[in-house]
Specification:
By secondary structure, this protein is of the alpha/beta class. It folds into two domains: 84 residues, Nitrogenase molybdenum iron protein domain (Rossmann fold); 144 residues, Nitrogenase molybdenum iron protein domain (Rossmann fold, 3-Layer(aba) Sandwich). Helix content is 41%, strand content 15%. The chain is built from eleven helices and ten strands. A five-stranded parallel beta sheet has the order 3-2-1-4-5, sandwiched between helices. Strands 6, 7, 8, 9 and 10 form a five-stranded mixed beta sheet that branches. Strand 4, helix 3 and strand 5 form a beta-alpha-beta unit. The chain is globular, with a radius of gyration of 19 Å. The relative contact order is 0.13.
Length: 264
C-alpha cells in the first residue's frame, strides 16, 4: 500500500514527487517550497523548523516527510500524534539520489526514480567535464549563516567542486553534518583568502556591506576583485533544483577563471 496523503515539510520534496508523477498525493507543504508551481496552491502548514500541528493533522496525512535535525522536534510531535513520518538527513550530493530512489519505491515508481537519477547525473557530468577545462580553479568560500559564521553543508561543497571551484573549507563541510559542526571564525576566512565568496543566509537576505565590512576582510581577494555573490536559497534544499544551482555556480566560477587568468 502506497501513501495517498502526504505532507511535505521538507521544501524540496514536492519537486521530486512531481518528477515521479506523484504530486497529486501531496496535501500540504512547507512555506519554503518554491517548486513546482502546481504545489504552491496547496496549504502551507510549516516553516523550516516548526509546523502548525493542528493544520497538519486536519489534512489527515498518512505520511509526513521532514528533513534535518532542525525538524527533529516537529517529527517527534507528529509521531506522538500518530502520524507516520519519514525523516530524511541529507548531507552530501549523493544523498539526493538516495532520496529519489527511496521516494520512488515509496510511491511505487522505481523506474521513474531511476530515470530521474540518470538525467540528473548526466547533467552533472556535463558540467564536470566543462569545469575540468577551466584555465585554473578559483578558491571559493560559501557562507550559510553569519552569526555564528557557518560554512556550507556537504552537498554545497560538492557542487562547488563539480562547478570548477575549490572549496576552502571542504573538509569541514564534508565532515560536519550539523550546522554546529561547521562554525568558523572570521580569521579562518581571512587566512583562506578565497577568490570568490558565495553566500545564502538560510532564508535571510545576504547583507553584502556587512560581509565586506568585517574586520580585516577588505584585503581578501574576493573583495578586492568584487567577486562576492548572493546565491538563491534553493542551494540549501537537497532537491532537483540543485542542477540549476550547479549551472549558476559554474557560470560564476568560469567567468572568474577566464577574467583573472591562471592563479593571478
Amino acid at each position: 500500500m502506497f501513501p495517498e496523503r502526504m505532507v511535505c515539510l521538507a521544501a524540496e520534496i514536492p519537486a521530486i514527487l512531481d518528477r515521479l508523477g506523484a504530486l497529486d498525493r501531496v496535501v500540504g507543504i512547507s512555506a519554503y517550497t518554491q517548486y513546482p508551481e502546481a504545489a504552491l496552491r496547496l496549504p502551507k502548514v510549516s516553516g523550516f523548523k516548526s509546523g502548525n500541528l493542528e493544520r497538519i493533522l486536519g489534512l489527515k496525512p498518512d505520511l509526513a516527510i521532514l528533513t534535518s535535525d532542525v525538524q527533529k522536534e516537529l517529527a517527534a510531535r507528529l509521531s506522538d500524534a500518530g502520524v507516520y513520518t519519514l525523516h530524511l538527513q541529507p548531507h552530501r550530493l549523493e544523498d539526493l539520489f538516495k532520496t529519489i530512489a527511496l521516494l520512488g519505491n515509496l510511491v511505487g515508481e522505481p523506474h521513474k526514480a531511476a530515470q530521474l537519477t540518470a538525467e540528473l547525473r548526466q547533467e552533472m557530468e556535463e558540467i564536470r567535464l566543462q569545469a575540468e577545462r577551466l584555465p585554473w580553479h578559483p578558491r571559493v568560500y560559501f557562507e550559510e549563516w553569519m552569526d555564528p559564521l557557518i560554512c556550507g553543508t556537504g552537498w554545497v561543497s560538492d557542487l562547488i567542486e563539480l562547478a570548477g571551484g575549490r572549496d576552502v573549507f571542504r573538509t569541514l563541510s564534508v565532515e560536519g553534518r550539523k550546522a554546529s559542526d561547521r562554525v568558523i571564525r572570521p580569521e579562518d576566512i581571512r587566512d583562506a583568502a578565497p577568490d570568490l565568496v558565495l553566500a545564502s543566509w538560510c532564508g535571510k537576505p545576504f547583507d553584502r556591506e556587512q560581509f565586506t565590512g568585517r574586520d580585516g576582510f577588505p584585503g581578501i581577494p574576493a573583495i578586492t576583485r568584487d567577486a562576492v555573490y548572493e546565491i538563491d536559497g534553493q542551494i540549501l534544499q537537497c532537491g532537483p533544483m540543485l542542477i540549476g544551482c550547479l549551472k549558476h555556480l559554474h557560470r560564476l566560477i568560469k567567468e572568474h577563471a577566464q577574467r583573472f587568468g591562471r592563479n593571478s
